[in-house]
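Record minuted for completeness.

…
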Amino acid sequence: MQNFVNLLVALRRLPPLGDLTGDEERLLFEIKALCAKKDELFLKDIYTLLANKSASTTYRNFKGLERKGFIEIAVDDADGRMRRVTLTAPAETLFAKLKAQS
């Protein structure tokens, strides 16, 4: 529990994450948390997690993260209806910096 509190304190001390909106930042952290739990991450997984949010707003935030280079969204090879989500190198670098500061 103390590590979690330390992380929250460290996050509040950080400047904004570039040109990300607050909603994009939160979504990026949610994606990172899901990546730690699952081998493969799909858009549907994140929509399920964020069921209380508007689907159009969530999708707009996804596209913002993709446009800004923090995630990649690709069609799944096994099921063309599914969209796979992966964190990019810039996102992983950002999380590594955050971890080093905590």
